[in-house]
From TrEMBL:
Protein family according to the UniProt entry: Belongs to the glycosyl hydrolase 5 (cellulase A) family.
InterPro entries attached to this UniProt entry: GH, Glyco_hydro_5, Glyco_hydro_5_CS, TAT_signal
Signal peptide segment: 1-30
Source species: Streptomyces rapamycinicus
Taxonomic superkingdom: Bacteria
Lineage start: Bacteria, Bacillati, Actinomycetota, Actinomycetes, Kitasatosporales
Name of the protein in question: Glycoside hydrolase family 5 domain-containing protein
A Pfam family assignment: Cellulase
Length: 646
């Protein structure tokens, strides 16, 4: 996990950090206007059939590495980012001067292009690209803005005159939904300042509290719960270091992205819209980009040892961003703040493929692990005016990787102004004429066409066992909605409970970690909310001492473990639920107080990195926890009673 940096760490480099405020984030490099090109004509490309409303059925959920629709059919996110509502001001000069906005494009805090092109025309062009989903960035400032947008900002869509930015956003969401697109809301920035350097938008709680950030998410999720094709909540964009501090993954402080995302996800799913996919991006940057000082792009690597478990097991999607001018340890800066680390575009094809797997795609490709989930590359892109051999090769290589690995993706950006942002897939001049990748002269078209038309998994996706970890590092991790509804079953202790439908199958000797699964038994719990909190040995039958000399918290007959609690490192209670069918009554003791004791195939993966751990076999359930409080012992779990499911 990344560690927090200290103030002393910054000694002698404050001037560098000040300059890093202008280091490029995604598509923030200085871009010259593209050379004039011919407007769209009949000699343009179509990449796929339009995704109509009857080709997929919301809501979306996950099965292993795949996203599926309500019918269980694979829904591959072939997406693009329609930006603008997150803001475009670069942070200096008058906000009213277009020259002070990214690429000279003043978005007015609403999706780009509404001043130039009617909404139906824009959506028709999106269909021609072949995309089936739109990542729609917004800022927290947009949510609370009360001033209406100028008439000029919606000149081509006069029905939007007199509306606030949020009301314009409403209209865009509704139009996209009606036209069959899946919409993923993305909290991109706190303010409407252009992302992503040192700009005041580094973290979800830069300039606001975590509580306010989550409240805004609950508001947005509730607002669009009536739109069934709003399918996802992309929690925050490119979490990264600010001037003084790194974000971290699991330290439990105010900079802990892992915990903040967990809290936001749970509140969205329980208070606003239980149908949404929850998209959690890895950490984009830690450290100071100076040769000799620690710095890196952790991306999704921390999920290997600490992954998220949501109240709905099948709603988690992980996300990452890749641009050619950045690198595994390169910030993307040029000049001051640039290091000698390679950029992604400096890597050979094989090196790039290895890095993509190591930084992100292991999450999808390692099946049957606690971190296994779909991976969505929610930003990548390049300019149509790019002439460099290395950046062009990178774009070909990364799109080939996405095609070969059947990856979910979202290009950045979708819409721009002609002679302003040549990165955009579609550019429009002031009269509404279209330019871009649909034109035959755009060099990106070949790679885009291969990406959009490569073989992919379609149709039904088989159900696969779910594996999820429980974490009581800094507090409760009760992911069962049934148990949340019943209240506090061990007041004052740190408590953990598996999501409904899963059972506890593994525990760690120290660290308070657990492993849940549904392998071999789909939702074995009996209907209702009954449970048993076990705090003594009353359910250990006479002659059934399966851990002699140890304290044993054993479930009653035909009940199975779904949770546990601890006070400090000591086991406090076992939480058991009744089974819907009779369970096996004979079992075995799995000891793990002196080493790991898990099945040979290690299904679920290492759910307590660095700690001894034990795990029942796939066809078993855990029926009891044994521990000791003798002098010199921690009181943590030492053994599990494992029994056959039937």
């Amino acid at each position: 996990m990344p560690t927090r940096r200290t103030l002393g760490y910054l000694t002698g480099i404050a001037s560098i950090l000040a300059l890093l405020a202008t280091a490029p984030g995604p598509v923030a490099t200085a871009q010259q206007p593209a050379a004039p090109t011919a407007p769209a004509t009949s000699a343009t490309a179509d990449y796929a059939t339009a995704p109509t409303a009857d080709t997929w059925q919301p809501p979306l959920s996950t099965r292993g590495r795949y996203i599926v629709d309500a019918k269980g059919d694979r829904f591959r996110l072939k997406s693009a980012n329609w930006d603008g509502a997150q803001g475009s001001w670069t942070g200096s000069g008058s906000v009213d001067d277009p020259a002070n906005h990214h690429s000279g494009q003043n978005s007015s805090g609403i999706p780009l292009g509404l001043d130039r092109v009617p909404l139906p025309t824009l959506l028709a062009d999106f269909h021609r690209l072949g995309v089936n989903s739109i990542r729609l960035p917004f800022s927290n400032e947009m949510i609370h803005a009360t001033a209406t947008v100028s008439d000029s900002a919606v000149a081509a869509n006069t029905q939007l005159r007199g509306k606030t930015p949020l009301q314009v956003f409403d209209a865009v969401v509704s139009a996209l939904s009606r036209d069959g697109f899946a919409v993923i809301l993305n909290n991109h920035t706190n303010t409407t300042r252009w992302c992503c350097g040192i700009d005041g938008n580094e973290r979800w709680n830069s300039g606001q509290s975590t509580q306010a950030w989550i409240d805004d998410w609950v508001f947005m999720a509730r607002r669009y719960a009536v739109e069934p094709r709003v399918v996802g909540a992309d929690l925050y964009n490119e979490v990264r270091r600010d001037v003084l501090d790194d974000p971290n993954w699991g330290l439990g402080d105010e900079h802990d992205w892992y915990t903040a995302a967990q809290r936001a996800a749970d509140r969205i799913l329980t208070e606003a819209d239980p149908d949404l996919l929850i998209v959690i991006e890895g950490i984009n940057w830690t450290g100071i980009p100076v040769d000799g000082l620690p710095h890196e792009r952790p991306t999704l690597a921390p999920a290997r040892t600490l992954s998220h478990t949501l109240v709905n097991t099948h709603k988690l999607v992980y996300s990452a961003h890749f641009y050619g001018y950045t690198g595994p340890r390169h910030s993307g800066a040029t000049g001051v703040g640039e290091t000698h680390d390679p950029r992604y575009q400096d890597l050979s094809r094989d090196e790039l493929y290895r890095i993509l797997t190591d930084q992100a795609f292991f999450v999808a490709e390692d099946s049957g692990r606690h971190y296994t989930a779909p991976v969505w590359i929610s930003e990548f892109g390049i300019g149509s005016a790019e002439a460099g051999a290395a950046p062009r090769a990178w774009f070909t290589n990364i799109t080939d990787y996405f095609a070969d690995h059947d990856a979910d993706f979202a290009y950045w950006p979708l819409v721009g102004w002609e002679r302003h942002d040549n990165w955009a897939l579609l550019r429009y001049d002031s009269t509404g004429r279209r330019f871009g990748i649909l034109d035959q002269g755009d060099w990106r078209g070949t790679a885009w066409q291969r990406l959009m038309t490569a073989p992919e998994h379609t149709g039904p996706v088989d159900r696969v066992p779910a594996w999820r970890m429980l974490v009581t590092d800094h507090g409760d991790h009760v992911q069962s909605l049934i148990e949340r509804g019943r209240g506090d079953w061990d007041q004052g202790a740190y408590k953990a409970a598996c999501p409904d439908g899963l059972r506890l199958i593994g525990l760690s000797h120290t660290a308070g970690r657990g492993l849940c699964t549904d392998t071999g038994a789909d939702d074995p719990r009996a209907p209702g909310t009954a449970h048993t909190v076990v705090t003594d040995e009353r359910y250990v039958p006479a002659g059934g001492d399966w851990a002699s000399g140890y304290t044993k918290f054993q479930c009653p007959s035909d009940q199975f473990l779904i949770g546990y609690s601890r006070r400090g490192s000591r086991v406090s209670a076992a939480l058991c639920a009744p089974a819907r069918t009779p369970l096996g009554a004979t079992g075995r003791t799995v000891w793990f107080d002196r080493s790991d004791n898990r099945p040979a195939d290690a299904a679920g993966g290492d759910f307590a990195h660095g700690a001894y751990k034990g795990q029942c076999a796939d066809g078993e359930y855990a029926a009891g926890i044994a521990f000791t409080t003798r002098v010199g012992s921690s009181g943590g779990p030492d053994a599990l009673l494992c029994r056959r499911l039937s």
